[in-house]
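Worked Example 4.2. Read the sequence first, then its structure tokens.
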Amino acid sequence: MKKAPPVLMMQDVWFRWTKATRAAADAGTRLAVPRVHPLPQLTAEANEATIRHEVMVHESNGFVPVHRVGRIKDPDWDRARPGHPDNVVARASGERFIVSLQPPWASMLTTKWPAWLPSPLFEGGVGDSIRIDWNGRFRSSLFGSDRSYFFEEHTVWVTLVAAPTDGVFVGLEPGKHIDLRTQIY
């Protein structure tokens, strides 16, 4: 009997808000949302070589987490969600995986991003994991017609597992934690 290949799993818990709720009563609601979640479902996705779980927590829907599960490189992924900086790249080859990180939306980013990050940022094998935290303040418009800003914070987990479970990220201790959060206010 042939052994099933390992499954590359990514979870991106991301928040988006504006100045209106930055320090207001809504800030407590945003801050109360956990930075790691169990997967809401593992059906057909469990048979894939990659699983991506995205948890969107936006001011526009009252900071209620919205879950989405699919393949990491699903071609329909970008069309079904609001603008999202896809700056974390995870790839697996056999029993190894690599993770890279690029600056998000450089033309709109107004906070400092680290000048240089190695590529790949992390290399690992089955059972290894990485957690990346980053945030930023962004201009709402590329050409200055809208002078407002929005804020984002991301907690991204990546791991390679022999068998996926819905709770793989809950209680996971990262082998490497990269914290790129800055003062964004």
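Now turn to a second chain, presented in exactly the same format:
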Amino acid sequence: MRIAYDCETYVNCFTLSAEHVDYPIKWAFEISPWKDDSRAIVEWVQWLVGHGAQMVGFNNVGFDYPVLHT
């Protein structure tokens, strides 16, 4: 399973958007004063790990993965 994803960080908002590479499945998460998907993000990443998923992104090594891992 391959997942393309991107993280965005702002002063008071974090977003994570992802899409399955082979199927029309999309995910969107937000952590902000208006919404807190932090638990859902952790559960989603654990689900991906359990399915042996590969996550790919534009600046994955230099930004997205370190931010998501933190």
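Notes for the reader: Strands lie at 2-10, 13-20, 26-31, 54-56. The chain has a mean pLDDT of 91.
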